[in-house]
User: Which sequence fits this backbone?
């Protein structure tokens, strides 16, 4: 490693020869408003240099500065006795007991994936893994939450295939199992897909390290890949709407190198364990600029860097480019002074390049030089914290309010009375409900040999070696609900995530959220944001699941309009005895099928309306957080007692779909014989998406005990049927007052399993 | 049994092998870094799964040139037992320790799923704990797992009982549907002529505990342990013409 020299006299940065003049047009190009630019000149007491303008533009972008979301995010609960690290760090951290802690975070890579799906998604996984291992945690799992337009469109299939391959290739190579997530297809995402990746890491509590640049005089070291001209202004790109010109922004999408990532992962954990460093951070969005300023701001220190010492891929790079490059697989390390050689030895073992590029100072200034000449000098605290924040106008769109008032007429409900079996088959073949095996078969879900339950169930489950515990994780959000009723829809996202964890036997512990919305400058979008955050806050309080970190992705709009508001909830839970993990599918013939919770006469916002009538309308299902919590406590009690043979939550497609999914196992399906006594419309009964319902199965002898347990918690329990033989001849039999289904399970299995492969593996060139 | 697990910078199943041997089997194992040149007192060498050097060129293509591979070559030449799993199998083929090659899956997609394989030869040091013809449920996780070789090589493998694992369906039959990656003759694992070097695409180390769904892979490790517990490593490990 070479050492940076900081012995040149500090002077006011002057315009650098060759840099463009600062003009109002250039300021606007950087996504800064006049008001924001004025604040910059006030802060500096002069015109910024081109380098400084670039740095402000990145740090004060929505992506880094949260300028339109910060006031809203303050509404979210962030504390609980088990929270070790809340929002503001690379990742949130919770205590899971026995001296172990879990770090986790979700992050979006929506805009890069919209223009270059493979690399966009791959680098999204890379970035989120770095956020986790820079906390000192070894990544143990990845989940992904994806949204696309309809699969009937060739470009959507291209995006979907590219994103899945990108996620798979990156995570598979680094060797982190993918244990779950969700994929939804909806017209509103056609021009702007969502790619949210979540990573989970495990560490001993004492290994927790924070990304701070403390200790004036400590050396600052750039580690990993060389800095190139890729991804410059990615953070700013991510903070504007997608347009026809975005294809031209392909160069702003970075290229991933999972092999280097694996080396960085091992080296970082070794560095953290070695005690030779004080802090470490990914050079992610806004690269060196944001990582160095954020580390200093957390420590209340300053930094003095010289870009001439940053290893670069090509000559002639300007300070502006070096600071804002988003080249992947780079880390910024603050070492202890005098330990540089130890750090170098560890990095050399992993064949990683490193260079001392500057040092920590005590003057609180963010100072950058080029060959000793100061090109940027900004008060660090103001740069990181001084980004102006906005509370925008919020008005609900009249159109949405009207949709909520929609009520079905007889024609909307008729198909169920005519042929409920046909409806069930169509719903199972809807890509939103159909098996996602086509996706997760491209992921390694068992590497590291901790996976107790992989993708395809309600939640992924990992054992924690050396303990009896397990960790469960899920991601959830039905954007349709949020679109039609933002507050309620966000509550449901949290409730469903918690319900999914409970279904595997895990107690929900904490949330990482990814708030994907359109432009906050539009009152109807800001209204969605505000209401969704408030709903999420209420639900997180109800389930004791504080938000310990997350990501905001705004301006998710294409020329066709905004996406459905999509506040994705990534939730982590803990299972005390991982041997008691519950599966989502029925196990034994003769087992009793019990519905916990009540069916309601609701059909609004359902997959049924979308599939049968191409309607996204009505109100989101009602949600009662107190009842939901009681339901979940009931299932946890049953699970801990070891009485459940399966548990599956009722969500998209309603009760009939939930029963079908429970009967369809990995191999041979079970049959079921179910009779529903409710006297409500059969469309709502079979396919309505009433919340607060879980279908469990148990040995016949335990039936009475379960009903008693439910009663103790004030939860309704209905014995609705029995599991019949597991065989190729198994049948799905469901009867109710006005509709019945009698189908071979094999027919259901085909509809469910073949829908996505048929859509994706069709010959090239076909519609 | 005293295993050396070769760790390339991009190995990612090294730890899983280590845990299978130390935690589940209770036997010693250690990691040997790719830059090392000696294997020490190991009586078993494992080349684990992963992406040895990133494998952007071709799986295993660069790993064969790593310093430790010279030691592995000598170890194998001396009759030492070498087990290559997934990427390790690819490295063994690239290094010429096993015949044939592994090319991209027929689907051109990475495959992470469970498969069934039939034990075609239960007389090897790697498979003696299994019943001949036993069907195992194991995980695969690979993008380049389609085994190819010329007809003469394939015939020689078959004749010598050197096809050790083959993809089959639930009934135990060799069918096209049961073949996940397009491997010729549904081949999932082979052994060298001398019988001391085995490579397979499925991951036995991932199926050694019922908590994780299956312990069908444990037999590979118990076979090796029983074999090595018998004393010094002999020159030849099995006679040609296995079961099934």
Assistant:
């Amino acid at each position: 490693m070479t050492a940076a020299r900081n012995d040149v006299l500090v002077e006011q940065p002057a315009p650098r020869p060759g840099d463009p003049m600062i003009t109002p047009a250039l300021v606007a190009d950087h996504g800064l408003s006049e008001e924001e630019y004025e604040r910059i000149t006030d802060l500096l007491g002069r015109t910024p240099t081109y380098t400084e303008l670039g740095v402000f533009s990145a740090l004060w972008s929505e992506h880094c500065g949260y300028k339109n979301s910060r006031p809203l995010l303050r509404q979210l609960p962030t504390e609980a006795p088990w929270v070790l690290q809340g929002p503001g760090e690379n990742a949130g951290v919770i205590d899971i007991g026995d001296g172990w802690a879990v770090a986790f975070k979700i992050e979006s890579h929506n805009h890069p994936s919209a223009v270059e799906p493979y690399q966009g998604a791959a680098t999204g996984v890379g970035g989120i893994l770095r956020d986790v291992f820079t906390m000192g945690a070894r990544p143990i799992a990845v989940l992904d939450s994806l949204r696309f337009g309809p699969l009937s469109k060739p470009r959507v299939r291209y995006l979907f295939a590219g994103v899945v391959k990108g996620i798979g290739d990156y995570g598979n190579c680094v060797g982190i199992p993918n244990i779950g997530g969700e994929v939804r297809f909806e017209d509103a995402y056609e021009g702007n897909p969502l790619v949210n990746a979540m990573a989970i890491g495990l560490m001993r509590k004492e290994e927790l390290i924070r990304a701070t640049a403390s200790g004036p005089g400590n050396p600052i070291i750039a580690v990993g890949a060389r800095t190139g001209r890729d991804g410059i202004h990615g953070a700013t790109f991510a903070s504007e709407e997608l347009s026809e010109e975005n294809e031209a922004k392909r160069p702003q999408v970075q290229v991933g190198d999972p092999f280097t990532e694996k080396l960085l992962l091992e080296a970082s954990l070794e560095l953290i364990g070695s005690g030779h460093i004080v802090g470490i951070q990914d050079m992610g969005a806004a690269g060196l600029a944001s990582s160095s300023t954020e580390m200093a701001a957390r420590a209340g220190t300053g930094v003095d860097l010289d870009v001439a010492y940053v290893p670069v891929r090509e000559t002639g790079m300007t300070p502006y480019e070096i600071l804002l490059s988003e080249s992947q697989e780079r880390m910024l390390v603050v070492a202890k002074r005098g330990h540089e050689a130890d750090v170098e030895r560890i990095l050399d073992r992993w064949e990683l390049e490193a260079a001392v590029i500057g040092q920590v100072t005590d003057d609180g200034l963010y100072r950058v030089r080029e060959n000793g000449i100061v090109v940027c000098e900004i008060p660090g605290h103001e740069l990181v914290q001084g980004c102006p924040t906005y509370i925008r106008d919020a008005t609900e769109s009249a159109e949405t309010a009207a949709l909520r008032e929609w009520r079905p007429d007889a024609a909307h409900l008729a198909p169920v009375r005519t042929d409920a079996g046909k409806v069930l088959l169509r719903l199972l073949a809807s890509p939103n409900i159909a098996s996602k095996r086509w996706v997760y078969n491209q992921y390694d879900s068992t590497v590291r040999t901790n996976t107790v339950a992989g993708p395809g169930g309600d939640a992924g489950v990992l054992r924690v070696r050396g303990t009896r515990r397990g960790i469960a994780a899920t991601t959830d959000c039905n954007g349709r609900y949020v679109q039609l009723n933002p507050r309620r829809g966000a509550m449901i996202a949290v409730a469903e995530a918690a319900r999914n964890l409970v279904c595997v036997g895990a107690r929900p512990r904490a949330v990482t959220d990814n708030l994907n919305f359109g432009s906050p400058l539009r009152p109807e979008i800001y209204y969605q944001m505000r209401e969704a955050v408030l709903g999420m806050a209420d639900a997180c309080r109800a389930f004791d699941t504080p938000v310990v970190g997350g990501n905001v992705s705004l301006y998710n709009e294409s020329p066709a309009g905004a996406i459905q508001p999509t506040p994705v909830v990534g939730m982590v839970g803990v299972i005390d005895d991982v041997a008691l993990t519950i599966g989502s599918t029925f196990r034994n013939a003769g087992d009793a099928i019990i519905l916990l919770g009540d069916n309601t006469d609701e059909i609004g916002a359902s997959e049924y309306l979308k599939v049968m009538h191409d309607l996204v309308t009505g109100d989101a299902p009602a949600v009662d957080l107190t009842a939901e919590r009681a339901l979940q406590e009931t299932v946890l009690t049953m699970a801990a007692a070891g009485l459940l043979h399966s548990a599956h939550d009722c969500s998209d497609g309603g009760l009939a779909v939930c029963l079908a999914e429970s009967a369809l196992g990995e191999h041979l399906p079970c049959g079921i014989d179910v009779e529903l006594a409710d006297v409500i419309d059969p469309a709502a009964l079979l396919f309505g998406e009433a919340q607060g319902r879980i279908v469990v199965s148990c040995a016949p002898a335990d039936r009475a005990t379960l009903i008693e347990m439910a009663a103790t918690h004030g939860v309704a329990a209905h014995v609705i049927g029995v599991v019949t033989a597991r065989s190729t001849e198994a049948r799905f039999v469901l009867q109710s007052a006005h509709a019945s289904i009698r189908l071979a399970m094999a027919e259901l299995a085909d509809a469910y399993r073949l829908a996505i492969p048929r859509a994706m593996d069709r010959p090239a060139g076909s519609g | 049994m005293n295993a050396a697990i070769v760790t390339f910078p991009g190995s990612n199943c090294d730890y899983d092998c280590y845990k299978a041997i130390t935690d589940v089997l209770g036997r010693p194992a250690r990691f040997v870094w790719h830059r090392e040149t000696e294997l020490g007192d190991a009586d078993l060498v494992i080349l684990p799964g992963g992406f040895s050097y990133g494998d952007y060129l071709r799986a295993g293509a660069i790993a064969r040139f790593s310093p430790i591979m010279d030691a592995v070559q000598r170890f194998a030449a001396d009759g030492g037992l070498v087990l290559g799993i997934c990427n390790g199998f690819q490295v063994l083929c690239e290094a010429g320790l096993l015949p044939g090659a592994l090319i991209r899956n027929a689907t051109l997609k990475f495959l992470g799923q469970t498969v069934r394989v039939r034990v075609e030869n239960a007389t090897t040091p790697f498979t003696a704990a299994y019943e001949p013809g036993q069907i195992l449920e194991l995980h695969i996780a690979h993008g380049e797992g389609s085994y190819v070789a010329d007809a003469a090589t394939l015939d020689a493998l078959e004749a010598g009982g050197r096809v050790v694992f083959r993809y089959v369906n639930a009934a135990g039959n060799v069918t096209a549907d049961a073949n996940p990656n397009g491997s010729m003759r549904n081949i999932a694992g082979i052994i060298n002529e001398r019988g001391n070097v085995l490579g397979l695409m499925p991951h036995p180390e991932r199926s050694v505990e019922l908590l994780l769904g299956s312990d069908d892979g444990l037999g590979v490790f118990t076979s090796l342990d029983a074999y090595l517990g018998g004393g010094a490593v002999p020159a030849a490990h099995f006679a040609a013409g296995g079961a099934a």
